[in-house]
Amino acid sequence: MSFIFSNDLLVAAIFAFCIFMVSYLNIDKLLNFIHKKSFGTEEEVLGIMNKMLIETDPKKVTTLVWLLSVGLGLVVFLLLWPNFVLGLVFSIIVALAGWSIPKFILKSLWESRSNKVVYQMVDGLTIISNGVKSGLTVAQSMERVTENMKGPFPQELNLILNKLKLGMSMEDALNEFAQRIERDDVQMLVTSINILKETGGNMAETFETITFTIRERQKILKKIEALTTGSVWQGIIISSVPFVLLIFFSIMDPDYIAPLFNSFIGWIFLGMIAMLQLIGGLAMKKVITIKV
Fold first, then answer.
1. Which end of the chain is less congested by CB atoms within 10 angstroms, N or C?
2. What are 189-238's pLDDT values in tens digits?
3. Is residue 265 within 8 Å of residue 11, measured between CB atoms?
4. Hey, is 183 helix, strand or coil?
5. What angle do CA 153, 288, 103 make, to 5 degrees?
6. How far is residue 164's CA from residue 167's CA, in Å, rounded to a whole number?
7. Beta-strand (E) ranges in 47-190?
């Protein structure tokens, strides 16, 4: 056993054979994964930008994604040359990260925008409720919101009104709104309006009830956020400790951890450390995430 681990070439051959067998047995899943991380990423990026009402050229998005992934991966490979194995490993990691960065950033922006829509619904629905009480229709009350408020929620209502002007029914326009903003409060609003338009009822009172429900839900969410902030920072600190120690030993005693970077088995252990830290971070995030 000691002979195997002392021979880097033999370890590399065994590791490559294991990767080949796993890839061969899961070729369909591997191809789907590669497609999802490449061309699938471009489709998701364009879809998110379309939801955010951002017009762009698909060719520019494709070029940017390829530059951030394959372009940066090639640069890393050339910088690490002539160390072929190390350059190949890190270039693949950088390329995969480059595919994910645009989607991650846009998803974060989209989540932030969706949350702002829900936060603005309290004030917006109050205006709609008052408009319905004064004898205006739902569409006319929505116009009052777009005239008196600024932000993502009035933008969404303006999009609904434009579709109504083009001949789309209120139900279809609201359903598209619910599909675009995937939040429970939005689903509740759309379902309530559609049901009331079919069965009849006090629309103003319904808007007041929805507004009260959303306001109370937001209070609970803020309390949960305040209670879990400490746990979030604990998770960040715990996850960063191994990397801080790695940097510390690299400065204080480089020879002590040199085998981690100068041998193939060391690279394997570094990859395992990174993978375990990622799994642990995701597990802690799952524990402290409370859905209301």
1. N
2. 888 888 877 777 777 788 888 888 888 888 888 888 777 777 778 777 88
3. yes
4. coil
5. 50
6. 5
7. none
45 SS3 class: helix
CA distance 205 to 110: 31
Cβ–Cβ < 8 Å for 211, 125:
yes
| Dist CA 141 CA 154 (whole Å) | 11
Q: Which amino acid is at 135?
A: G
Helix (H, G, I), strand (E, B) or coil at 68: helix
Q: Cβ–Cβ contacts within 10 Å for residue 75, how many?
A: 12
Tokens representing residue 113 in the block = 């925008």
Question: Which residue in 234, 242, 238 sits closest to 274, CA to CA?
Answer: 242
Place of tokens 């990691």: 93
Model-level pTM greater than 0.85? no
Residue holding tokens 């739902």? 138
182 backbone dihedrals φ, ψ, rounded to 5°: -85, 80
Whether 207 and 132 have beta carbons less than 8 Å apart is answered as: yes
Both tokens assigned to 100? 């994910």
Integer angstrom CA distances of residue 5 from 58, 207, 238, 263: 49, 69, 30, 10
Q: Radius of gyration of the chain from Cα atoms?
A: 26
Mean of the per-residue pLDDT values of the chain: 78
